[in-house]
Amino acid sequence: MTRRVPLEGVENFRDFGGYKTASGGRLKTGRLYRSASHGKATDADLETIHALELAVIVDLRRRRERERDPSRRHDAFAGEVIANDLGDEEEDSWIGHITTSDLTDASFHGYMYEYYRTAPFDPRIVDLYRRYFEILARAEGPVLIHCAAGKDRTGILAALTHHLTGVHRDDMMADYLATNDPERVARRLPLVGQAIHDLTGRTLPESTLRVAMGVEPGYLDTAFAAMAEHYGDVDRYLEIALGVDSIHRRELKARLAE
After folding, report:
1. Which CATH class is domain 14-256?
2. Environment class of residue 24 by beta-carbon count within 10 Å: exposed (0-12), middle (13-18) or buried (19+)?
């Protein structure tokens, strides 16, 4: 199946349903979408997205990110938008790292691994993940999750969705790594580099930019290992931190799988 939704100004937009599940079924297509931010969406993009009939958009970005790059939405969009401003008084660690680091590949790898170790427990992210799973069990239509690049906050949440619905770990990881599409990275490299310079005044070497734009299996493994370390296993993290108990889980499987 073709997972990517081709758009002009919105990156990394794809359907993360359609995978086989451990029970012998398959996640439905056309119900679960993920992407980067929509601030650069063209009018044609808005028409394409509108045709998907989204019921819910979960915007995982901080308030300052949303203000720097306001989402464009179709005039007829009538769905629910989930976002929050928790912890907004805190410094953006990503911007802080760029402005203070030595801009080496190693420093950015280190930042990413630390981010994935801690993100699942960030109160702001926990609140958004919890609200996503709450609404996923009752949404009367497709749900889209996105952050700025659609790879880290979005990637963890998509992987958790796959985990609880019984998608095989190999398929979960393949979906996560689809962010590394070479054509997308090559097209976006100069744009991301310029955006970082405009925001921080610093210029990243190309190799470091590639680290900043990409994802690696070890990142997601680190997040799942941290959940297991804190809660015993990922299922307990889903239940205790995010409120997805056995009844909720069955509801989600029944709604999302076929």
Report:
1. alpha beta
2. exposed
pTM of the model: 0.95
CB-CB contact of 133 with 243 (8 Å): yes
**What strands, in cross-sheet order, belong to the sheet with 80-82?**
14-15, 32-35, 143-146, 56-59, 80-82
Angle (CA) 237 55 57, round 5°: 55
Task: Look at residues 25, 8, 10, 11 and name the one whose alpha carbon lies nearest to residue 178.
Answer: 11
CB 146 within 8 A of CB 60: yes
Q: Which residues contact 219 (CB under 8 A, 6 or more apart)?
A: 112, 113, 116, 152, 155
Indicate the angle between helix axes 169-177 and 153-165, nearest 10 degrees: 160
Q: For residue 194, which amino acid is it?
A: Q
- Is 253:24 a contact under the CB 8 Å cutoff? no
Taking only the tens place, the pLDDT of each residue in 62-101 is 999 999 999 999 999 999 999 999 987 676 788 888 888 8
